[in-house]
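Same chain as my last thread, 353 residues:
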Amino acid sequence: MKVCRIWIVFSAVILCSSPRACFAQSQEEPVSIKEAVATETPHEIHYRWMQILDRLEPYRPTRDVKASLDLSGSSTMLDLGKTWLNGITKFHPNLSFTAKLLESEDALIAFEKNPKLVAGITRLLSESDLQRLQKAGCKEPAALIIGFEGLAVFVHESNKLSSLTQDQLKSLYVAGEGGLPRIRDWSDLIPGTSEGVVEPRSEIHLYERDTNSGTQSFLKTILFSGADLAKPYAICATNTEIVDTVARDPQGIGIADLNSTLPGVKKVPLVVHGHAVDANETNVVEGRYPLVRPLFLLFDRSETKSDDGAREAICRFVLSKEGQKTLMSSGFFPVEPAVAADQLQVVFGGQVR
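reply #2:
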């Protein structure tokens, strides 16, 4: 998958995408990317996935692992994690887990207090985060990229909005006067109309996740360079709830998982280099679509000395052919095989024995 990448090494391997850098600065009238790029068929997309899977190493442990681990993480990560755990216990029946649902920020705080945890988070870790963890007693914090999630801007299916530029998205989500969005009415956002979407002066209903969620942290830290986010119309507990709420509100807008398929909504193309790029699998894989965030598995590497190989087994399984197939089946995007191998080599060295 072609994504904008930055490597940071600080007792861990971190790989991140930079959607803000991919956004066009031009305010020219957008041209649909479809005019220049043919849309792939489901069969062609499936073939791409199979090519990636063929280059991934299968999971081949040579001994059993006997351990019990505590996991914590966001709803996105725990739902995916449960599927992974069902897979790995087929190889290691004596490996057991307890899981606790926490938003990404809360999972990070829990890990800071208890470095024996394995945390799944959906926001980028900074060098200051890792330094903070070390000061709290985590001797060797390690964060591995285990997949990617595409995000999309959703509006009601009746909405006339055809695309969003970076500046428009920033005006919707970054706090203006009084902490409110800088654009508050649909008639100020949709060209060629002074009547808004529902009625004259139709208020924009901005639906967001809790401030401790990985989604909000991604928007604030990566997409909007640390700017304070605007006060939402309402807060939703999950990305699915955002899409469901927007589907019932003609004035609603929200950012959620790109692969959400609830009826009553549509995904808004984002303007990149003057082109309106649709939120779909093909554009994510080709690196044209900017809203893609990494998924991390965070643990203390020093704990691997006394866990009977449990953390290494989890990481190798998740980044194996079997683990990445599960990831793709759940609607996420895989790690490049070379990147998966590099991360495992840096953190663990040779294959677990």
